[in-house]
């Protein structure tokens, strides 16, 4: 049996946390953390902006 046929290449999910110099386009841990934190930060920023505009427009009364 050929040894190469038993070698399994990990899928993109498994390869995505191997490090900054990962070949074949794998994401680094730093990139993954930025992606995970980007959405919550964007949601909080949008909420603060909407609340600020509402307070300015409607007022505290």
Question: Brief description of this entry?
Answer:
The chain has helices spanning 12-15, 29-58.
Describe the protein.
- The structure is a single chain.
- It is built from two helices and no strands.
- It is mainly α and 61 residues long.
- The protein has one domain.
- The longest helix has 30 residues.
- It is rod-shaped and about 70 Å long.
- The model has no long low-confidence stretch (mean pLDDT 75).
Keywords:
61 residues; mainly alpha; 2 helices; transmembrane; transmembrane helix; membrane
Overall 3D geometry? rod-shaped
Average pLDDT rating: 75
Share of helical residues: 55-70%
Radius of gyration: 22 Å
Keywords: Membrane, Transmembrane, Transmembrane helix
Helix/strand layout:
Elements (H helix, E strand, L loop, with lengths): L11 H4 L13 H30 L3
Keywords: Membrane, Transmembrane, Transmembrane helix
